[in-house]
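The instructor's notes for this session suggest beginning with a concrete chain rather than abstract definitions. Hand out the sequence below and ask the class to guess, before any prediction is shown, which regions might be ordered.
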Amino acid sequence: MNLAKLGLTGLNAAQSRLQAAGHNITNAATEGYNRQSVLVATAGALATSGGYVGRGVQPVTVQRAYDGLLQRQLVSARSTAASLTSYANEIAQINNLFADNTVGITPALQKFFDGIQAVASAPADAAARQELLGRSASLVAQLNDANAFIDAQRSNINTQISTTVAQINSYVERVRDLNQQITHARASASSHQPNDLLDQREQLVAELAQLVGVRAVEQGSQISLTVGNGQVLLAGDTLYPLHAKASDHDPERTVVAVTLPGPNGSKIKVEIGEPFIVDGSLGGLISYRRNTLDSVQNELGRLAMGLAVSINAQHSQGVDLTGRRGDDFFALNDINVIPSAANSSAAMVVVELVDVNQLRGLDYRVERTDDGYSITRLPGGGVVTLQDANIADHAYTLDGFMLRLPANGVANGDAWLVQPTRAAASGLTLLIDDPAAIAAAASYTGTANGDNGLALAKIQTAKVLGNGSMSLNEAFSQIVNKVAVHTQQNTTASRAQATLINQTYAAQQTVSGVNLNEEYVSLEHYQQQFIAASRLIDVSGTLFDTLLRLRS
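After discussion, reveal the predicted structure:
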C-alpha cells in the first residue's frame, strides 16, 4: 500500500464528510430534515514481515440522526394541536354570537317580558299592545337568526370536511409514491438508506397528521397508514381512500367513510364513527360539531319550545279585547324524524310532544330489532330496549315526548333519527298580528283587566324547563355558559399542548436538528483532514521523484 493510495482514501473520506456537512448547512431550515453524517471505518491492514500496515480509511454509509420515538411524539403532539386549533376557530364564532349580553337573545327576552308587563299594567293601551307585538317579533327574529347562524356554520363544517378529506387522500397518494421510490432506491444502492427520501416521507406523514390522526406502521421499505379505529388508508401499494358523504342517518350531516373490500371484488363505503376520528383539523371539526354545535342548537331549540309552549298554554287561559279566548301566540315546526337511507321499508316513527319541561336537548336513534326496538340517546346517553309485548299500542313516552312506533311493515335494522328540539328555533313564528288579539284579561272577568297578562309575565321566572330546574333566562344562560366553558377548556388545552410541542421539538432537535456552529467547526476539521491527506499524496510524489533521480 503506497502513500498515494493511502492519501487518496483520506481524500475521499474527507470529501464525503465535507459534502455531508455542506448538505446539512444548506438544509438547516428545511422542515423535516434530519442531520446526516458519514460513517467511516478503517480500510483494514496489509500483513508484512514488519507487521500489519494500515490501508487507510473508507466511507461505510451516510446515516441520518433520527429517533423514531421522538418523531412520533412530535407528530402526535402537533396533530392534537391542529385539532385544538380547528376546534378553537369554530367555537370562537358561536362564542361571539352568544357572549354579548347587550344584544341578541338575552335582551330580547327581557324586552319581551317587559312588554307583557306593560300590557298587564294597561290592558286597554293600544300602544303597549303594539309594542309587545314588535318585541315578540324581535325575539322570534333573534332566535331564528341564531339558529340560521348555527345552520350556516354546520354547512361550512360540511364543506371543510369534504375539502380536508380530499387533502388527506392526496397526501396518502404521495406517501405511496415515496414508498415506491424508497424501495427502488434501496434496491439500487446495495441497501444503503435513501435518507432524503425517508425525510420527505416522514414530513408527509407529519403534514398528514395535521389533517387527521394517522398511525404509520413500517413494513420493510414501506409504511402502511391507518386512521380511526384501524381503518386502512394505505397498505403497500394499495390505496383505500376516504370519502366525504351525506350520513345515512342525517342527510344534512357530512361524515367520513372508508373504502373497504366488498363481495365479488367490489368496494363499499362504510362510515367511520365520529368518536374514532381524532386529532388533526378533521378531528377538531368533528369534535366541535358533535360535542358543542349539536348540543347548542338542540338546547336553543329547547328554549324556543319552552317559550312557545309555556306562553301558548297561559295565553289560551285568557281573553282578548273582544272577549274571545286567546289563540296560540307562537307556532313551532313538527319534530324532526329522519328515516335512515338504508331502511328497507317505508315505515315511519311519529313523534308527539308530551311535556316540554322534560325535554333534554338530545337526539335519539330508534332502531327495529328482532323482537322490539332500541332507542339510543345521542351522543352517548344510554340505550332503552323495548320488547314488542311490553309496548302498549306501540307507543312509548321518553324524555318529554311520545314515540308511536310502527307495528307492521317494518324490517329489522330499519332506523330513524329523532331530533325533538333541533329545528325548533328555526321554525318559531309569531302567530298574532292584531294587538287586540292579545289575551291579557282573565276569563269571566271582562276584558279590561290584565290578570292573564300578569300570569304571562310570571313565565319569565317560572321553572319551565329541565324538569323544573330552569327558567327561560336560565336555559339561555346555560347555553352561554356551556360555550364559554368549552372555549376555556380548549384554550387551556391548547396552551398545554403548545408547551408539550416546544419540549418535544427541543428534544427532537437535540438529536436530529442541524447546529450551524457545529457544522462550521466540522467544516474546518474536515478541511484539515483533506489538506493532510493531500500532503500524503504530495510526499508520495516527492519520494517517487527521488527514486527516479537515483536510477538516473
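Then share the key points. The radius of gyration is 37 Å. The first strand starts at residue 36 and ends at 42.
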